[in-house]
Design goal:
With 340 residues, the protein is α/β, with parallel strands linked by helices. It is 25% helix and 17% strand.
Length: 340
């Protein structure tokens, strides 16, 4: 299982990249699909500011997972539980209202800058009925760590790379940690693909990703995290090496690009590769014409000009959504975001 994730705002700047990866033809002349014929999928950890919620709705309608990356995108080291709640429960509500995503499908969070908040953050996740967090950097990768639950008295089996880490048990909650990559020679470790030393050419990009993938694939098969910010792909050879890697591993026949939720569903119900075509959570009902569509793509969003109150300043912002325009730009102190 490969867990491809993208952080931060979704808008006109990066949406063409996502179209190229997931919708356009590969070098082989076909769309990129998993061995069962379903399109490859990713998780979008969406932060609020500058996001086009019409495009988020389209990503969700196409089968990708959408999760919370906070409203204000601030370091949360000193947040209270209430601060964490405003950031992530609030962002879930914004995604529900303006991208039309059911609340129950927004199951995960990632802390801004991967700065976790210990028990205050994880208590918010429990109270807010989230299923998982995906913020913890895991240095140990020989063999790599699988996602794990926080069901019992918490005793990390790996180093806490960024403190504070949780110390109590949180039954039912999962951590889908970011197993760190081995950087280019002399570069140590890196948590996100774009935080590694910049490879000088397409071949080096491909080799960096492939060598880290093989650490998972050739050992205990723990899900391989590929976490990125979209700005990294503005360098042409970055994107070329990345796409070359994807196209090559899809030829192996036993590699699937799945969402975090799909990975957890497999872990709850492990299914042999011979039967994976019948594993319902990995199917693609949105491609069947007779299947009910809960959410449609947003093709003609409303372009809303709304008031934006930030501290003592009042200005205006453009805001795109296929839903009804708000009067004010939603923000951390919008009164009714936490009512549901």
């Amino acid at each position: 299982m490969i867990l491809l994730t993208f952080d931060d705002a979704v808008n006109d700047v990066n949406f063409p990249l996502y179209e190229e990866i997931f919708e356009e033809m590969s070098a082989s002349g076909r769309r990129r699909t998993n061995p069962n014929g379903c399109p490859i999928r990713a998780v979008f950890f969406v932060s609020h500011e500058w996001t086009d919620y019409g495009k988020v709705q389209t990503l969700y309608a196409r089968g990708h997972e959408v999760a919370s990356h906070s409203i204000t995108h601030r370091f949360g080291e000193k947040f209270s539980t209430e601060d964490w709640r405003r950031e992530h429960v609030g962002q879930r509500e914004i995604l529900h209202r303006y991208a039309n995503i059911p609340r129950e499908d927004i199951r995960g969070t990632r802390a801004a800058f991967l700065q976790i908040g210990g028990d205050k953050q994880f208590q918010m996740l429990m109270d807010g009925n989230f299923s998982y967090d995906s913020s913890v950097s895991i240095f140990d990768n020989s063999p790599p760590f699988w996602p794990y639950t926080l069901d019992f008295a918490f005793d990390m089996q790996h180093d806490c790379m960024i403190s504070p880490c949780p110390t109590r048990s949180y039954p039912g909650l999962w951590e889908i940690g970011l197993v760190m990559w081995q950087n280019l020679p002399g570069g140590g470790r890196c948590t996100m693909g774009n935080s590694c030393n910049s490879p000088p050419d397409e071949q080096a990009v491909y080799e960096l990703i492939m060598s880290n993938f093989k650490r998972h694939y050739e050992s205990n098969r723990a899900p391989f995290p590929m976490a990125y910010h979209s700005a990294w792909f503005t360098t042409p050879h970055h994107k070329a090496g990345f796409l070359r890697f994807i196209d090559e591993v899809l030829q192996l026949g036993d590699v699937y690009f799945v969402t975090n939720q799909q990975a957890l569903q497999w872990m709850r119900q492990p299914t042999k590769l011979a039967h994976i075509d019948r594993f319902e959570p990995w199917q693609c009902p949105q491609l069947v014409s007779s299947a009910p569509k809960k959410v449609l793509e947003c093709l003609r969003p409303n372009i809303c000009l709304v008031k934006f109150r930030k501290k003592n300043n009042v200005g205006s912002r453009y805001f795109k959504t296929c839903q009804v325009c708000p009067t004010d730009y939603p923000w951390i102190d919008t009164p009714d975001l936490l009512e549901n």
